[in-house]
Every structure is written in C-alpha cells, then in structure tokens.
Amino acid sequence: MITVAIVTRKLREGKTYEDFRKAWYHTIGFGTPSKLYTMINCADPREIIVIGFVETELDQYLAGLEIDVKERLNNPLDDIIEPVIERKFGILVSEDDFSAAGFIAYRSPCVCGNKTDLNEISGNLAEIAQMIAQVSAERDRKKKEPGNVPP
Fold first, then answer.
1. CA distance to 22, 23, 74, per residue, from 52 (Å)
2. DSSP designation for 12
3. Please, what is the end-to-end C-alpha distance for the chain in angstroms?
C-alpha cells in the first residue's frame, strides 16, 4: 500500500524556505520506501506544500506516523510557519501515465502494475483515519506538556 500525505504550511513573514527546510528535515527515516516532494506555491511564495509517498503495510503505518510526530516535537516549526496547517492523507489508488502523444485507452486503476481493490482500500481508509486521529491527539497533548510549549 502506498499512502500519500499533502501538507500545506505558510512561512511566517521574514522566514525563508531554507529556514523551513533546516527545521523540517527529518533526522530519522521511516524504515520503508518514502519520498517527499516539496513545492513552493507560484501564486504565494510563502506557501510550502509537501507531498509524501510512503510504501508500507497497514500494520506498519502507525509506527511511521509516530516517527513523524516525534520529529515535529523534537524539531518544532512554530517560529517558522503560521499556526494553521492544512493536512490531507490518503491511499494511492491509481498511477496513470499520460506521457504518450495521441489516443490512450482506458485502463482500470492500478498501482505498480497491480489492480486496485477498491473494497480493500475502503476499509483501510477508515483504519488510517483512526490512526491519524490517534497520533494527532497524542502530538497535541505532548505539545502542551511543560517544556514542549513553543516560545
């Protein structure tokens, strides 16, 4: 299963992408194929969008979320980004290559050459949503603990 995260943040006035990158950059890997792509919005150069693709089994997903929470608690971004963060999480259900010129025949959704089982995806979405809610609540609780409060 490949999960996708899209996280949008806005730099505080006077902060740069390099300020963000130095604080955001992970010092601990996920231990599974993971690629993160960072974009700067053309219409608003203060907006930073990170799109992450993580290949993992459902039973390993929570461990990856916990690593990310630990990274953010150990390397807070509060003095670099605005407080509002937009987060979207999902499961990759199809990858399509429209590079060819001319007609392209329809094909069923598949990832890495494997047909997508939309019934399985439906159940996994609910489980992942619960895991995200769980680690988000834990992150917010820990962030409020003495010593974790941003300046």
1. 18, 17, 20
2. P
3. 39
The amino acid that residue 94 corresponds to is S
The answer to whether position 17 is within a domain reads yes
Residue 151 lies in a domain: no
How confident is the prediction along the chain (151 residues), in pLDDT tens digits per residue?
A: 999 999 999 999 999 999 999 999 988 888 899 999 999 999 999 999 999 999 998 888 888 888 888 888 888 899 999 999 999 999 999 999 999 999 999 999 999 999 999 999 998 999 999 999 998 888 888 877 766 544 3
pTM: 0.84
Beta bridge partner(s), residue 137 = none
Beta strands in the chain (DSSP E): 2-10, 34-40, 47-55, 86-91, 110-111, 114-115
- Structure tokens that stand for 21 in this block: 């990158």
Q: Are 25 and 38 in contact (CB under 8 A)?
A: no
CATH code assigned at 38: 3.30.70.100
